[in-house]
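Protein modeling request. Please complete all fields; requests missing the sequence field cannot be processed.
Requester role: graduate student
Desired output: 3D structure, token encoding
Chains: 1
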Amino acid sequence: MSHHSSGCADARSAACPCSRCDLLLGLDGVHVEHVDRRSGLLVVTVSSPPSPTGCPSCGVVAAGRGRRRRVLHDVPAATRVRIVWRQRVGRCGDADCPRKTFVEQVPGLVAPRGSITTRAVAWAIGQLRREHATIAGLARQLGTSWKTVWRAVEPELEKLAADETRFDGVTTLGVDEHVWHHTDPRKRGPKELTGMVDLTRDNHGNTRARLLDLVPGRSGKAYASWLAERGDAFRRGVKVAALDPFAGYKTAIDDKLQNAVAVLDAFHVVKLGTAAVDEVRRRVQQDTLGHRGRKSDPLYGIQTILRAGAENLTDRQRTRLTAAIEADPAHDEVFIAWQCAQQLRSTYHQKDLAAGRRIAQKVVDSFHTRLPQPPQLPTPHAPRRRRPHPMTPPNVRRAGFPNGARRGVGGPFGALLGCSRPTQAP
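Delivered output (426 residues):
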């Protein structure tokens, strides 16, 4: 016979609940009393088993004063879930104790004064970290407000941010800037941030790609200050430092990571390689026709094709590419530049890093001239004052790569291939 305080026929009494219901719910420290399904909502009533309880202040065994109902938001399943906790209320029997009454606390269920269960908080943090969820989206799923969710997850996020163990074992460190928002910083805080990412490979050769930290500011000083705070042991452990073409980050690496090899990340290497093809195309356009590209010009008609990967081209696009190159013998320079860019791109699509490096070395060896001066590559975030690009020949030689050539397509591609090495396909 079913007990009046239980929704399970196997529960003989409130003091002897159904173990299978408790196992299905999965909340330690409480037992299931009743389950009710309403429109779009699953309500589970739980309570803690009766046992002697001491006063939190003086420790004297307290007398029970009944229970109160406390509604909690739990992890959503097929529908939203509400936990109705029949929380015990006690009264201290010591007349001299300043605490007269108190309520029981179950840390495994919910934090004091909280309205979201402990496992729902852990679920929300997992959604934020791995599923790109937002606080507003989590609030909709839990059926509560933005402020309630943030008040529950903020203390746990602060604990994770204070945990220094996430910096252990980092041998490949990446850095890049991030624009957090596009509104007034006085209303929403810092707009530009610098992010550090762990790019160390595991035993299976897979990149961890873990976000380590975000600090306000988009400058070399912000990155250098963060490296200084990590300590000597962390800096000595970093062997490879990946960055975008920004002189400030390169200066911070030279100052703080003397033992690390500075490399350009795969995305910016391929981006600069594609930009070099556009530069050659525009130069050949001016040399042959004496004006900027027009709709009827062969090279202008294939500008988007030159930016795509060769493996993604359709038969029609290949025909257009061939016709534009054969329209003038001077267009061979554009074709050579495009081939170099495709080989550069293929280095990051190789499963074996050694194979990708051999392809890069082959492209570099195909250049015949040498650089009379360091290459001038674009530095989008550098100050207006002209200065040599951070990836200059001395840094290239330290990484163990030869310098590139400058004339024709040699300059841009030589510099790119000389100061980078394969990490991961973009």
